[in-house]
Design a protein that fits this description.
Layout (H helix, E strand, L loop, with lengths): L2 E3 L1 E6 L4 H9 L9 H41 L3 H10 L1 H9 L6 H13 L3 H4 L2 H16 L1
Antiparallel strand pairs: 1-2
Helix pairs in contact: 2-3, 2-4, 2-5, 3-4, 3-5
């Protein structure tokens, strides 16, 4: 992935757009001049996939925090307050941001409401629960 230009201190990194484009626009007779753009695209795609994996990992941490708050709610009755305190904390805001969730008060209220319902995240994300909720909403509209 790295191309050496003279010495180790002048290494081009594949995620630098200026270097990749400049290397392709030079008028040099290099048989490998097309490989630099391909390596740049490969590096960008890899970085994007790695970012998506990290975002999913942090989303799993948020779901685990919700499950813990639901368990606290069933055991001690303070689940919504626990998740609100976590979401407003520095660590909670950092985890929510890394998961791609904007850590504002509307999100905190939504998390508290979710914990207040007492439905575990694995059940809430399942297809059966979604179908049951939709059927209940349609019956409520019809009545």
């Amino acid at each position: 992935m790295h191309f050496l230009h003279g010495c180790h201190s002048k290494r081009d990194r594949p995620n630098r757009t200026q270097k990749g484009i400049l290397a392709l626009t030079r008028n040099c007779k290099n048989k490998n001049k097309g490989t630099m753009m391909r390596d740049f695209v490969d590096g960008t795609a890899f970085n994007n996939e790695q970012g998506n994996r990290a975002r999913k990992l942090f989303a799993a941490v948020v779901l685990a925090a919700l499950d813990d708050a639901i368990a606290d709610d069933k055991k001690y009755g303070n689940g919504p307050e626990q998740i609100a305190r976590w979401a407003r904390s520095r660590d909670g805001r950092e985890v929510l941001s890394c998961a791609g969730i904007d850590p504002n008060e509307r999100v905190v209220a939504g998390l508290m409401e979710f914990v207040g319902k007492g439905v575990r995240t694995s059940v809430a994300l399942s297809r059966e629960e979604s179908e049951r909720r939709n059927a209940a909403e349609q019956e409520a509209r019809a009545a």
